[in-house]
Write a structure and sequence with these properties.
The protein is α/β, with parallel strands linked by helices and 246 residues long. Helix content is 50%, strand content 16%. Helix 1 (26-37) links the parallel strand 2 (10-15) and strand 3 (45-50). Helix 1 (26-37) packs parallel to helix 3 and helix 9 runs antiparallel to helix 10 (214-228).
Length: 246
């Protein structure tokens, strides 16, 4: 099941399948997609995590994958994973992955789709699909941009697994924390101190940058900056800043 808490400025989504290392089959994927799409507009930050301490997401449900009978079945299953990743990337709020334990295959694709990742010291990351006869696909395509082509090949060709410290050195995670909840709260507080509309515009702009030439990315940034001043947020926040300086 998927557990949600949408009562405050921080929307929390938990994949609650600890018995199976939070692995994702069709039912959970569809529920997770609905949960991401249901995040309230007035939420400021989203935190995505897995139940328990053993895994963020241990991967796609291998039992269900073993029952795939046709290429059309395979396409349908993998597209469900892509739809979840795309919903996370399309979510207007910043999404923090709270990575507690194993983060493998589909789990790493979902973590890569998040905006930032905080991991426990016992977290492990890998793309083991080639070890079970299939390539890593969909949002695994984000990994070269995060860690470089050579390291992405190491994970995906070898089916290798790395620990949290190496993942941080590679840039796969942005922070390791013994106290995950305290670290997540600290980042949430920092995000809540920012202008909500400016954060939404920043996330949307970074999505444009991913698929743009440098010239187009710069021009998109100029347009985004100009559009920001259609609202009162920059005037209000710059005035408050200068007042504090005085």
């Amino acid at each position: 099941m998927i557990e949600t808490d949408f009562t405050g400025a921080v929307a929390r989504i938990t994949i609650a399948n600890d018995r199976k290392l939070n692995s994702l089959g069709t039912t959970l994927l569809e529920a997770l997609l609905r949960a991401v799409q249901a995040v309230p507009r007035d939420a400021r930050v989203v935190v995505l995590t897995g139940e328990g301490t053993r895994a963020f997401i241990g991967g796609a449900d291998i039992t269900e994958m073993a029952r795939i009978a046709t290429p059309d079945d395979a396409r349908a299953f993998i597209t469900r994973i892509h739809h979840v990743c795309r919903a996370i990337r399309d979510c207007p709020q910043p999404v923090i992955a709270r990575v507690n334990g194993w983060c493998l295959g589909a789990g790493l694709e979902i973590a890569a789709a998040c905006d930032m990742r905080i991991a426990s010291p016992n977290a492990h990351f890998g793309m083991p699909e080639t070890r079970v006869g299939m390539p890593s696909v969909v949002e695994a395509a984000l990994l070269p941009g995060l860690i470089g082509w050579g390291r992405a090949r190491r994970l995906m060709y070898l089916g290798d697994t790395i620990g949290a410290a190496e993942a941080e050195r590679w840039g796969l995670v942005e922070r390791i924390a013994e106290d995950l909840d305290a670290a997540v709260t600290e980042w949430c507080d920092m995000l809540l101190a920012c202008g909500p509309e400016s954060l939404r515009r920043q996330k949307a702009l970074m999505r444009v940058w991913e698929d743009s030439t440098m010239t187009a990315a710069i021009n998109a940034g100029i347009d985004a900056y100009a559009a920001t001043w259609e609202s009162e947020e920059p005037r209000r926040m710059t005035a408050a800043f200068t007042q504090r300086q005085r």
